[in-house]
Amino acid sequence: MLKPVKKKSEFARVMKQLAKNKLAILGLIILLAEIILCAGAPLFTKYGVAEMDYMSFMDPTPSAEHIFGCDSMGFDIYTRVLYGGRYSITIGIAAIIISACIGIVIGSVAGYFGGQVDNVIMRLLDVIQAIPGMLLMIVISAMLGPGFVNTILALSVSSIPGMARMLRANMMKERGNEYIEASQSINCSKPRIIFIHLLPNCISPIIVQATMGVAQTITLAASLSFIGLGVQPPTPEWGAMLSASRAYIRQYPHMVIFPGLAIAVTVLALNLLGDGLRDALDPKLKN
Amino acid sequence: MPENQNMPFLSVKDLVTEYKSDGKIVHAVNGVSLTLDRGRTLGLVGETGAGKTTIAKSIMRILPDVGSKIVGGQVLLDGRNLLDLPEHEMRKIRGNTISMIFQDPMTALNPVQRVGEQIAEVVKLHSDPGTDCEQRAKEMLEVVGIPAERYYEYPHQFSGGMKQRVVIAIALACNPLLLLADEPTTALDVTIQAQVMDLIVDLQKKFQTALLLITHDMGVVATVCDDVAVIYAGHIVEFGSKEQIFDHPTHPYTIGLFGAIPDMNEDEMWLHPIEGLPPDPTDLPEGCPFHPRCKHATDACKHGPIAPVTTADGHMCRCCRLDEISKEAN
Fold first, then answer.
1. Predicted-complex ipTM score
2. Is some CB atom of chain B closer than 8 A to the CB atom of A250?
3. CB contact, 8 Å: A145 with chain B?
4. CA-CA distance, B321 to B319, in Å (whole number)?
5. pTM value?
């Protein structure tokens, strides 16, 4: 008679592993705090997002009334950072999720099948990569028109080739291993081999790339807003806030510092979390 | 196809497999024929690169899609030619009727999947929905001598010998009728080798499995096999029962192989290797592939295919100077 064995769930294992990494937990806490603050923005501020304080024109620097100060339009920066986070974080994460999903599929197919399939896919990606990223985003945004969803699409297209390439390289390395032959010999279908057996072995660099990518995407979204193709004013967005305030950087640096700080803290938190997650997901690094 | 009682369980006929590499054709398997019955063990012996593994992979049809091709021949399993089966029919057989034990247990398991799940996977792929795959996988772990509690562990937490047991458990989980063991003990140390071989043989006895054992270890062949096929450069140069091959090797290559085993009772200064190297498989010599290294070679060996000579009791040897060599031996 077999003894019953308790199953430990994969999720519990990853969380336990993650909990050992203090920095990753710090990153997770910062990120969760930001998400709560941004999602529940009206609860944490008494000003409206497009509410001007005419008195602030005299002195926009931080004060008890406006803890982060006000910007050139008289908007409360603290309020706009909170509301802006909704857009910035969503754009960053959504664009990366889209590009990672597409990149994973393309990269897996190219890396697993190799040969002609790989050649065709890679040459197509070369074409995309031959166009400077910024230019490509401008073209796509100009084509689709500015706006929140279109910005996400424009940003995700330009990071697909990087993701696909990285996964393809890993796939090619892993594909030669005997366990892939073994999985063929027990009759796994090709999609099963690719997505159940190969992908979990190749995914860790993608996770790191993706978390760093979120940070990069937030700043790229800012550049798009800067040339008027990203999220449109008066919708607050961190990058847009940065670029709108750059003219006052000498007189009123707080206008740039606070949105910049928001971006920096998010990026830091994501990087810490991404690093920890990569380690936690790898069962070989257990204990 | 009518069931033929006299037909062997597995019969490979004139199998030819080629690889393409840099525009050259690698002749890995050149007209191999062999038969194997249920409950019997056939040893495939030969040097590295002789085509042993390629034969096994050709039988299972798991050669890489790109750059390899089964050019000709038949693989008859219970009278059905596996090489003619459509892929979806083949998939029912692969892992179920035929399964394979791989050479290197260190890389034959997926490093990020729990070992139990890897055993359960093969069960799941071949059984009706609703089967308790996990239960079956735990049973298999116990069968190969690993406590079922270790179902949830990862391959890196297992030693080499235990990993090979898991590989065996995967191969045997569906009670295969034909087991292809590709150097199952090569990567293990000697004591573990013995345990693993015992395990394979026990399970073979229990399930009446036909076993094709690929190895270059003559000791393993001597203990386990019923029949032996000696492979050289993709040809079977000698085929016979274990007794025939071990007591009366006839092909110069086989004689050379046995000559290379050092004798424990004699104080020998030097080992006796077979001079030369195996031929380049992209450019096999004409005639007998062994002739450049054979001290008995004559002009007759250098031309045309060498016909196999079979004695009454089924001992086959592919050599055209058989008579002279056996005279010399006596």
1. 0.71
2. no
3. no
4. 6
5. 0.75
